[in-house]
Design brief:
Elements (H helix, E strand, L loop, with lengths): L1 E7 L6 H15 L5 E8 L5 E7 L2 H8 L2 H12 L6 E6 L4
Antiparallel strand pairs: 1-3, 1-4, 2-3
Length: 94
């Protein structure tokens, strides 16, 4: 399994609109082959994180490079105060 974790910083007052966009965009992205899950997390200290799980790096990249993702991506970023910090992982044990 392939996992991407992104730390995101939202603009003041943008959280509700971002959550709505996130849920709507999941309806599109979840249809891609290899998609496992995509979640938006918020910690008690207010920091936010997105976790995306895919069957493989290849299926993640294919989704990420799709016209559907290209259409959704700019709107998601419009709610952020800065670019997200991303890290990718491969699950090596369960």
């Amino acid at each position: 399994m392939f996992v991407m974790i992104a730390d995101v910083k939202l603009k003041d007052g943008a959280e509700d609109d971002f959550k709505t966009w996130f849920s709507e965009s999941n309806k599109v992205l979840s249809k891609f082959p290899g998609f496992v899950s995509r979640r938006f997390l918020k910690s008690p200290d207010g920091s936010c994180r997105i976790i995306v799980e895919h069957e493989s790096k290849e299926t993640f990249v294919k989704m990420h490079q799709s016209p559907e993702h290209e259409k959704l991506h700019p709107k998601g970023h419009s709610f952020m105060s800065e670019d997200p910090t991303r890290k990718t992982y491969t699950v090596v044990a369960e």
